[in-house]
Amino acid sequence: MGISITSNLKKEAYSLDDGKGSAKPRPEKGPLSTHSLTTDRAVEEKDVEKMVFLQAFVKEILRKHPPTYFTLTHTVTEPTTVAGYDVPAGINVEFYLPGINEDPKIWSNPKKFDPDRFVSGKEDADITGVTGVKMMPFGVGRRICPGLSMATVHVHLILAKMVQEFEWSAYPAGSEIDFAGKLEFTVVMMKPLRAMVKPRV
């Protein structure tokens, strides 16, 4: 599942970079260039921690386009009340992630793809759920996805490398990107992303 999630998130990232399907790093605060994509060496894993905007960019992808619509099923162990609803013990509960990720009570302008929300300090979210649950793309608690660490490291590093080495644009040129998703093993783009890739000189 970790490989599937990593692949799908990369596709979403290429599509979302400037809203037109074109991955063009901006100076210093650019989505994937950020701190120091050097020209004399390939970006390495140790560089990622300095790339603040890249981290925010990936977090916003996970918020807007979670890898799946629902968390793993959890069983209620004791009666409780959630949002005015009585939940008896013994039933199975699933959480609908887009409902949390686009809740205006939790997020400002939730429909907008805006990585700056995490850079400015206005908003934050711990994707592990340790310090609070505002988004849980990999689940939370004891049943959190064991592939979280691998998937997030791969997504950050591969996106940085792909943008360092290549220019990405929609194909055919000027075509609109359809962000509609469908649920397979994970959520994938309903219409597969087509891209033009050119090496950076």
Give a brief rundown of this model:
Helices cover 29% and strands 13% of the residues. With 201 residues, it is an alpha+beta fold.
Structure keywords:
8 strands, heme, two-stranded antiparallel ribbon, disordered N terminus, 201 residues, two-stranded antiparallel sheet, Cyt_P450_CS, iron, Cytochrome p450, monooxygenase
Structure characterization notes:
Belongs to the cytochrome P450 family. Its cofactor is heme. Keywords: Heme, Iron, Metal-binding, Monooxygenase, Oxidoreductase. The chain is built from 6 helices and 8 strands. It has 201 residues and is an alpha+beta fold. It has a single domain, classed as Cytochrome p450 (Orthogonal Bundle), CATH 1.10.630.10. The strands form 4 sheets. The chain has a two-stranded antiparallel sheet with strand order 1-4. The longest helix has 18 residues. It starts with a helix and ends with a strand.
Low-pLDDT residue spans: 1-6, 14-36
Q: Terminal Cα separation, in Å?
A: 35 Å
How large is the count of helical segments? 6
**CATH topology heading:** Cytochrome p450
The whole-number mean of residue pLDDT values reads: 80
- Alpha carbon gyration radius: 18 Å
Please state the structural category.
alpha+beta
Order of SSEs: HHHEEEEHHHEEEE
Q: Count of DSSP E strands?
A: 8
Strand residue content: 5-15%
Main-sheet strand order equals: 1-4
Provide the domain count.
1
Q: Roughly what percent helix?
A: 25-40%
CATH class term: Mainly Alpha
CATH architecture: Orthogonal Bundle
Q: Main beta sheet: strand number and arrangement?
A: 2 strands, antiparallel
Shape: globular
CATH-assigned homologous superfamily:
Cytochrome P450
